[in-house]
Structure to design on (161 residues):
């Protein structure tokens, strides 16, 4: 599969991508745990069918020490026993925040209450921003059909400089 358009080969898109990547540094520097960030990014990417982001977040999570078992079960997190209650709240927020068109009220009060129970204000801010950021990344990659499979952990780190 070939991409329809090379976002990293276009000057305007590269300028945007650098700013986009820099926004992710704010989330990376937040108190939201790295494992939670990767699980949320992976789940949203699965829902949106973004192969590049699934490839990236699976590999980045594994490189950071995430287990293969947990990565394999992200798509079925409700039925899995390997996630903490806090991670389950974050995954529910990721799903409901990604599937906005499926529920006219967006994120449910029940999910929001669970998120409030497990995360402080800075972590919630990071979660909300992360869900927005990963959904934007998914959409750009799906639009141009960016292929998956060649990502190596850390390969986009130069985008933030």
């Amino acid at each position: 599969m070939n991409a329809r358009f090379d976002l990293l080969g276009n000057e305007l898109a590269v300028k945007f991508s650098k700013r986009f990547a820099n926004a992710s540094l704010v989330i990376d520097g937040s108190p939201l745990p790295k494992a939670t960030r990767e699980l949320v990014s992976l789940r949203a990417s699965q829902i949106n069918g973004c192969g590049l982001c699934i490839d990236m977040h699976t590999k980045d999570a594994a490189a950071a020490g995430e287990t293969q078992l947990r990565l394999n079960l992200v798509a079925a997190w409700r039925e899995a026993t390997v996630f903490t209650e806090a991670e389950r709240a974050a995954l529910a927020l990721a799903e409901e925040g990604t599937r906005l068109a499926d529920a006219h009220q967006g994120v449910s009060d029940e999910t929001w209450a669970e998120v409030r129970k497990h995360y402080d204000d800075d972590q919630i801010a990071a979660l909300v921003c992360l869900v927005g950021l990963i959904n934007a990344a998914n959409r750009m990659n799906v639009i141009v059909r960016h292929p998956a499979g060649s990502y190596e952990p850390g390969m986009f780190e130069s985008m933030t400089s």
About this structure: The helical segments are 11-28, 34-48, 51-63, 68-73, 85-98, 109-118, 121-144. Residues 7-148 form a domain with the AhpD-like fold (CATH 1.20.1290.10).
